Amino acid sequence: MAAARSSVSGDVDLRRCFLPRAALEFVFASSATHGLLAADWVERTSDPGASDAARLPPGFRGTLERARRWPVPAAPVLPPFDPADYLRDPAHWRAPADLPPGTPHARKVWQALCRIPVGEVRSYGQIAREISSSPRAVGQACRSNPWPVFIPCHRVIPATGWRSGAGAYAGQREGALADIKGWLLKHENADLGSPVSRR
């Protein structure tokens, strides 16, 4: 596990976390005025110590610029934990004090995700029943989660359990993001061997 820190511009603090042998790195940005701005898994740079913001993928840069235009909140939401610490030990995970801007439905889903304890999973259907929604709408809100890891959409899997597939992560069922979802669930010692209970 490695971490690097740099400044994007002005008061924006950019941090990167690297998993061994992973094709992706976790990047998040925050500022003193706005708090947590953006977080995502992005293609790993060849130089883990790279600090050049221009190396960030255009999608992440766009998300960051949109977040910087949000109205300044009365109480900025600070990152609730250091992701590098969490990636070493999942006991460091804490829910954020508030949620990012989003539709009322998405925010209800993200709140429900933040109530799932480390090491546990829920099905899309369970979350849907909890908030009076549909599993498909829950999946869409998971896909649009702007703060992965901080808002643990990786803890939502199909009702049939892990053996049928972990479900999508950021809209991908295969590839590097799906691998990260599997890694995160195993890292948290989630019970992935059986169907999700109906509780």
UniProtKB/TrEMBL annotation:
The keyword Methyltransferase applies. Coiled coil: none annotated. One of its GO terms (biological process) is DNA repair. Transmembrane segments: none annotated. One of its GO terms (molecular function) is methylated-DNA-[protein]-cysteine S-methyltransferase activity. Residues 106-189 form the Methylated-DNA-[protein]-cysteine S-methyltransferase DNA binding domain. Keywords: DNA damage, DNA repair, Methyltransferase, Transferase. This is Methylated-DNA--protein-cysteine methyltransferase. It comes from Thioalkalivibrio paradoxus ARh 1.
